[in-house]
Amino acid sequence: MIYEASNRKDEQTLITKQISDQISAIQAASRIAESISGRKKKKFQQVLSLARDLTKECSEAESIHALICTVIRGILAEVCEKLVQSGLIREKVDVFYLNLYEILSLQKSTRRNLAAIIAQRKHDLWLEQRLIPLETLHIGA
């Protein structure tokens, strides 16, 4: 599949663009390294190495973040389904009007109190969505 994606001749694909960018970066780094000498060259190589390490770490952190978000999304979907089935909330989306502490203390909350919290927050959001930012108001026009 990667071979097929990179074998397109009519347009630059993400794969060929990434390879092209990597080659350009390597060429730029060697041009800079050739133009400097001594301590500056050593410092440049250290900075370049640190930048490459940072890029790898950031990429790994993004991957871990994506996995964690997927797991949390799955857990939240199950929690929403159980809350709807138990009658604590009316719709699955209502869970997004609650904070973490309210979700964790759902067994202690009364249904009426929870419904009031959700209704108030829905109303607050409705009001906020109707506000016009000051910079878009046309005064005296």
Task: Return the average pLDDT rounded to an integer.
Answer: 80
Low-confidence stretches: 1-6
Question: How does the major sheet shape up?
Answer: none
Number of strands: 0
Order of helices and strands: HHHHH
Q: Kindly state the percentage of residues in helix.
A: over 70%
Strand fraction band? under 5%
Compute the gyration radius: what is it? Answer: 27 Å
Oligomer: single chain
Task: Count up the helices.
Answer: 5
Shape: elongated
Distance between the termini: 59 Å
Helix/strand class: mainly alpha
Task: Characterize the structure shown.
The structure is a single chain. The protein has a domain at 91-141. It is built from five helices and no strands. The protein has helices at residues 2-6, 14-35, 39-86, 100-104, 111-129. The chain is elongated and about 75 Å long. Residues 1-6 have low confidence and may be disordered.
Helices, strands, pairings?
Elements: H1 2-6, H2 14-35, H3 39-86, H4 100-104, H5 111-129
Keywords:
single chain, 141 residues, mainly alpha, 5 helices, elongated
What's this model, at a glance?
The protein contains five helices and no strands. By secondary structure, it is mostly helical.
